[in-house]
Amino acid sequence: MTTLGAFVLGTPDPPALADFYRALLGWQEVERTPEWVRLRAPERERPGLSFQLETDHTPPVWPQGPGTQQMQAHLDVEVDDLDVGTERACALGATLESYQPQEDVRVLRDPHGHPFCLFLPGA
């Protein structure tokens, strides 16, 4: 059997970024050191979301362009209301990107520059 254990984000401050996602997702913290933090959904063990220390982290450019730091992956977060979800994420420290490629999705950046998307069910 093969199972996805976690998605890991590199960051210069794992505890701070974990606090943002814990508040955004309502997930539980299961491990914390200055170099590593692991979150999980309350109703299941895996997959989780982890944060590891990367002192030289460089956020990707959005939208992507030739010769720039490319986005290798991003998180998709389902919300019931895009406006309410966007307002809440921004109140927690996210920033809304100026370029939005779809009407039913909002592209934001977490406090350390990782892009993530809010989307509606069925989108």
From TrEMBL:
Residues 48-68 are annotated as: Disordered. This is VOC family protein. Pfam families: Glyoxalase_6. Residues 3-123 form the VOC domain. It comes from Streptomyces argenteolus. It comes from the Bacteria.
